[in-house]
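Researcher: Please translate sequence to structure tokens.
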Amino acid sequence: MAGLSAADMDRDITIQKAPYVTSESGEKTLDWENAEEQIVAAQWIPGSTREGYESQHRLESHVEGVFRIYDMDPRPTPDDTRIQFDGRVFDIRPYVEIERGIGLEISVVARGE
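Model: Translation complete:
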């Protein structure tokens, strides 16, 4: 699957990058309430046909897939970034670069609430 097509970028996702905060006990945690948010166009590729069907009908509690987006700076990292889409929060995995910086494929997983 080479390149990106604007016609396929039919979803708006919110990429959240959270700052680290240190508690009084010295523990570092992510502060999602004060996360920077950026809305970008994306293509959704479900992990499997079954998952795609079930996630569309909100029957699946565990959804895996890939969001394809145009390249961005800074690039998202699993350490402090997550994606919100369609009322769900997706944890991200390391991205794969598409054609020397044209775009990114970001593998994601969302678990049921």
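Researcher: Any highlights?
Model: The mean pLDDT is 86.
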